[in-house]
Amino acid sequence: MSTENPHLLDALDVSLAEFAAAHALPKYRVGQIRRWLFEKRAGDWDAMSDLPKGLREQLAESFRLWTASIARHTTADDGTEKLLFALADGGQVESVLLRDEVRRTICISTQVGCGMGCVFCASGLDGVDRNLTTGEIIEEMLQLQRLLAPEERLSHIVVMGMGEPLANLDRLLPALEEARRPDGLGISARRITISTVGLPPAIDRLARHEANYRLAVSLHAPNDELRNELVPVNKNIGIDAIMAAADRYFDVSGRRITYEYVLLANLNDRPEHAGQLARLLAGREALLNVIPYNPVAGLPYETPTPERQHAFRAILERAGVTVKFRHRKGNRIDAACGQLRRSQQPTVVDIAAQI
Ligand code: SAH
Q1: Annotated catalytic, 114?
Q2: What pTM was estimated for this model as a whole?
Q3: Is 92 in the pocket of ligand 1 (CB under 6 A)?
Q4: At CA 151, angle to CA 146 and CA 157, rounded to 5?
Q5: To test ligand 1's pocket by mutation, which of 195, 215, 220 has the most ligand atoms within 8 angstroms of CB?
Q6: Which of 62, 114, 261, 263 is the Cys-Cys partner for 123 at CB 3.0 to 4.6 Å?
Q7: What is the pLDDT of residues 198-254, one digit of tens each?
Q8: CATH, domain range 8-62
Q9: Residue 14: is it exposed, middle or buried by C-beta count within 10 angstroms (0-12/13-18/19+)?
Q10: Domain coordinates of the chain in residue numbers?
């Protein structure tokens, strides 16, 4: 098999249609192949046992099914599993499967590295290398799904792994299409959350898109001065423009916006920050997800003490903000953004369970 073969998952419908036409396949074959991929969780062409052997060989000669290999696979006591993928060009991304009661949530990456430069985040320490392709994003989903026991079903997707999803919408949206399709993963848009640093034109583009995904905005600071420090791209954008775009998204989608706030000791965890945050969110249909910082080796930031966390929370709750603190999951397997890739010290935040 040549590595030059196209990745089947990159343009699945077109590739299968062309292949079916070129080989004069009966129509139902395409459906069979799709079922093997999405429903029956096939690991390779050979697993597709109701396809004639000759056809499986022709498929293998025409397409690459997987382009990435699993470089590491870790499992935590609570059932959280994390995959580190080695991509065909040597880049690495990570993806997580979270088990929470009946929920089976996957957290996927969209870029190798990240260009947003949030000062506390492991993913962006070395900048962004490239966008993932549509096929690579679907591959993450399918490989994570393959970790499930036969009786388990994927229920939710959060696009909260490595990278800025709104900087790679062209490739992400077709991948999410496959996630939603009944003959894909069959996960409805309201169970799919896209997390962004806040890029207004891309938020507006998402608002025009036919599917109403849930939107999470990573705020991390209640004023521009502080946000410029923590989230450097903010200098060119500003909180007002982000809130306005998020409001428009809410108007169009009817989906409550989630705001994420990584709580960093002595930086954005003071009572006045909580007060400002409460004023910013007042009157908005919003869920505030506070994430006590998950330390990244080599970075100077610290997790606030439980007392500071409680005080922060109390101010917001008194002001009537709907606030959730994310509980920790996946301890000891580095299940936070970009951490496995850097092979950091443990402990982790559940990046998903609360949305
Ligand atoms: N680029 C997107 C998605 C990436 S990460 C975004 O900015 O939303 C998902 C969330 O995890 C973001 O809110 C991010 O700021 C947060 N995060 C990153 N590193 C973290 C860390 N070390 N501890 C806690 N949260 C972190």
Answers
A1: no
A2: 0.94
A3: no
A4: 55
A5: 195
A6: 114
A7: 999 999 999 999 999 999 999 999 999 999 999 999 999 999 999 999 999 999 999
A8: 1.10.150
A9: exposed
A10: 8-62, 69-354
